[in-house]
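> call design_seq(struct)
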């Protein structure tokens, strides 16, 4: 980790402990903890432009919002590989972050969100980032769905990001036991459902209508199931009746909940498989679902996996038409903890064209039942040992 901000001694402001650009060692981190320094600004390659938004004048909650959003952007960029060049949208990202920071100054509920537990803030930030990335991927669809606006304004995703950031703000108005009742299927869950109306009552008139609509209807499903934010509606919304921003937010929210359940992190391939099954598939706009599957691949280059022949391998190339069957480099006989220091020729296998071989597990999680899509069955071949790659 490389410092993006210098570290000042907490009890001796005139003493600089470490300077910007310093690469941290484990022993230094331990020593910083002893001194009472727990929060650091770390460089994220490619997202350095977000550092320019930081200033000493920001409140503590604003700083927390800024850092959480930056971390989420970095995490999502890593998760999506290079399929959506988010760095090309710097102006949009900066405008979004600035809008959220400004809201933390003028709107108490945004500042309140920044002051809650890490789980809700992180979830809100991740839904915000993924929702914006889906919106950028769907620029043409946004123009089509928002025909009353000019093309320039129709594809502006800043309000989409603001709405995603605030989608669960109503949960802060619920007693703690009701906040946890979303996992229930009885009457207890009905109490939790109130959070959408509570959130809407807070943000209505304070944020643009398209953002407020996300807070109100992000649990209204494309197939007409789910629940609307206003109990006075005689008929639930469905399909294109639901604002396109809300459809995108609902997809991002659903995916993030499938990715993190009951305090556990699940592999992306599991969440992507689940979201294509009933009932989730019917909840999503098919166009938005296709964008999600395109933006978030199940396996990424650099990921270590175990194959069904018990060998370990590292993913080196993915296929958009066979996303669960990437090219991998066999790591058999290599110490995985020190693989970066080992050089040599390793067998490369394209799982999309190799019969009988597939990924079985990721980080000890069996994913063999969750591989989706088909292999390139028209071009089946055996592994090619002579093909080599150096690591």
């Amino acid at each position: 980790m490389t410092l993006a901000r210098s570290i000042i001694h907490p009890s001796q402001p005139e003493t600089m402990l470490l300077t910007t650009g310093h690469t941290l060692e484990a022993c230094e981190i331990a020593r910083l903890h002893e001194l009472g320094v727990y929060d650091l600004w770390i460089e994220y390659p490619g997202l350095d432009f977000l550092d320019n938004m930081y200033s000493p004048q920001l409140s503590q909650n604003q700083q927390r919002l800024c850092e959480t959003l930056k971390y989420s952007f970095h995490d999502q960029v890593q998760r999506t590989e290079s399929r959506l060049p988010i760095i090309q949208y710097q102006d949009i990202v900066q405008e979004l972050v600035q809008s959220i920071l400004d809201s933390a100054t003028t709107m108490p509920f945004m500042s309140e969100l920044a002051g809650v537990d890490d789980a809700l803030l992180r979830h809100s930030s991740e839904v915000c980032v993924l929702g914006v990335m889906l919106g950028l991927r769907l620029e043409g669809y946004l123009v089509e769905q928002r025909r009353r606006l000019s093309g320039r304004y129709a594809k502006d995703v800043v309000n989409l990001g603001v709405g995603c950031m605030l989608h669960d703000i109503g949960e802060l108005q619920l007693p703690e036991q009701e906040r946890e009742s979303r996992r229930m299927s009885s009457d207890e869950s009905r109490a939790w459902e109130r959070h959408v109306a509570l959130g809407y009552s807070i943000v209505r008139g304070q944020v643009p209508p398209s953002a407020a609509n996300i807070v109100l209807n992000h649990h209204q499903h494309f197939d007409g199931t789910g629940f609307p934010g206003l109990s006075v509606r005689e008929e639930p919304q469905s399909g294109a009746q639901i604002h396109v921003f809300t459809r995108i937010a609902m997809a991002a929210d659903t995916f993030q909940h499938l990715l993190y359940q009951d305090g556990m992190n699940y592999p992306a391939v599991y969440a992507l498989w689940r979201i294509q099954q009933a009932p989730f598939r019917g909840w999503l706009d098919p166009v938005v679902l296709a964008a999600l599957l395109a933006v978030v691949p199940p396996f990424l280059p650099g990921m270590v996996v175990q194959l069904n022949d018990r060998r370990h391998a590292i993913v080196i190339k993915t296929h958009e038409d066979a996303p669960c069957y990437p090219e991998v480099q066999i790591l058999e006989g290599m110490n995985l903890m020190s693989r970066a220091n080992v050089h040599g020729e390793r067998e490369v296998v394209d799982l999309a064209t190799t019969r009988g071989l597939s990924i079985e597990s990721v980080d000890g999680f069996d994913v063999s039942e969750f591989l989706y899509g088909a292999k390139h069955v028209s071009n089946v071949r055996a592994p090619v040992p002579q093909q080599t790659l150096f690591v």
